Amino acid sequence: NAGVMQNPRHLVRRRGQEARLRCSPMKGHSHVYWYRQLPEEGLKFMVYLQKENIIDESGMPKERFSAEFPKEGPSILRIQQVVRGDSAAYFCASSPPGLVYNEQFFGPGTRLTVL
Amino acid sequence: GESVGLHLPTLSVQEGDNSIINCAYSNSASDYFIWYKQESGKGPQFIIDIRSNMDKRQGQRVTVLLNKTVKHLSLQIAATQPGDSAVYFCAETLSGNTGKLIFGQGTTLQVKP
Q1: Is B45–A106 a contact, with Cβ atoms under 8 angstroms apart?
Q2: What pLDDT score does B51 carry?
Q3: Which one of A10, A47, A100, B92 has the largest count of C-beta atoms within 10 Å of its C-beta?
Q4: In chain B, which residue's Cα lies nearest the Cα of A33?
C-alpha cells in the first residue's frame, strides 16, 4: 500500500507565475489536508478537503490560494501569482473516513522556491 | 537530556541516554495528541498518539505523558540512538472537529555518538 504521494518534490517559480502542487492520498483515504511549513517552523494547517468538498479552509490565505479534491484524480493546491513569501514546504496528509480520532499520514512534501 | 517548553529548540544527548522532549499545547479542549518525527527533507512521521482520557501511553522505546492540568505533553525516548536524530513536533486536535492538527514549534534532537 503506497503512502501519500506528492509531486513535484521540488518546484521553482518566478514571481508572478502559478504553482500547482499535487497530492494523491493513501488508498482508501478520502480526507486530505494541506499544511505549509516555513523554514525552522512547525506545520501550519491550510485546508481540509473531502472528495469534491472543501470542509475547512480557515488556514488558507484569502487571495491567490485555492485547493480542490475532484472526484477523480489527485488533490491540487494552486497558488496564483506567487511571491517570495510563498517559498515553503507544502505537505499533504490523508486519513481514512469514519475515524473519530484522526491519525493523519503525511507525504514527503513539495518544496516551493520563488525566485 | 530534557528540553524545556518551546524555548529550547535543540536537545543534545549522548547515544544510549534517555531523551525527554516537552511540549505545551494551546487548547484546553483538545482531546487527541500526536508526536511526529521529521527528518531533514522528509514529511512528518507518526510516532505515537494519546487521547485525553489517558495520562500515559507506551510504544517501542517511546512513552508519551499527558498532563491536562497544565496542558503539557512530553515524549520520552529510551536508549536514544543516532537514528533518532530529527525534529520532533507535538500536534493537538479536537476529535469530531474538522480534524486539523495544530503543531508546536518543534525540538531538534541531536544524538552524539
Answers
A1: yes
A2: 92
A3: A47
A4: B100
